[in-house]
Amino acid sequence: xxxxxxxxxxxxxxxxxxxxxxxxxxxxxxxxxxxxxxxxxxxxxxxxxxxxxxxxxxxxxxxxxxxxxxxxxxxxxxxxxxxxxxxxxxxxxxxxxxxxxxxxxxxxxxxxxxxxxxxxxxxxxxxxxxxxxxxxxxxxxxxxxxxxxxxxxxxxxxxxxxxxxxxxxxxxxxxxxxxxxxxxxxxxxxxxxxxxxxxxxxxxxxxxxxxxxxxxxxxxxxxxxxxxxxxxxxxxxxxxxxxxxxxxxxxxxxxxxxxxxxxxxxxxxxxxxxxxxxxxxxxxxxxxxxxxxxxxxxxxxxxxxxxxxxxxxxxxxxxxxxxxxxxxxxxxxxxxxxxxx
Length: 341
Hints:
2 domains, Spore Coat Polysaccharide Biosynthesis Protein SpsA, Chain A, globular, 14 helices, alpha/beta, nine-stranded mixed β-sheet, 9 strands
């Protein structure tokens, strides 16, 4: 690695006018000076406001526009335009601390050198700090390898990621069919291709959780996980052990989807369908709580439904701030959701 390689900061923008200046200002404040900024307008409906917000710094960015094709296509456009040896990904509503790039480039130089690094980030609920970091909710464990990514022992947050550009190109870039979990798919392929990957626990960014964002629909995020595992199982020459892990993870995420669908059907008072979905989920979880509720649901569907709705009302009325934050984060995004050993 040269002493001061150029880093291309790729920012996909969709409905980003409200936060884009804060995001860009966090890049311009970096103590590491060797970077370029590429903003890709992915057919955003707020283009006029977005461009107005970026106008004062127009001479400091490369601005690209395209029809709406999703986050994968937007990032790929930025990667193809990038001149840097490394690409740093940043979502249009997240921000970096001033030392972000400096610390990440130092981390890439550790030992014999790495191709890929990610850090921790403070989680924000809209515009307010939650008091929790990404790794507090979902700690990375051990070395970052294909196996640890596959099992979700290591989970990467895209806005905290710096990657050697040629590694991304060799892995095939983002799969443009995916609008959710597209980063998970690429990180798996990157690791499978032999990239040297690492992380650091230092909090170097702030990651915003927003209602209405692509990551704010947990059931769709779960389905995204399923699609990635299905793809990995069908396209990569996995070992028997890796295939076993991927198959188990696929079973888990399908069970989570059935569980959440059962809860939704309970609220709609479709008790027969809810019971069927919960039974499918419990075939994996073997939960005493779910089993007991299924028994009540079979004997007295309406009272069981009222019991569940009462539980939700009490949950939603909790005044405990820490509890509220936990529930808000859980409902806002599945980025840290994984099986617990």
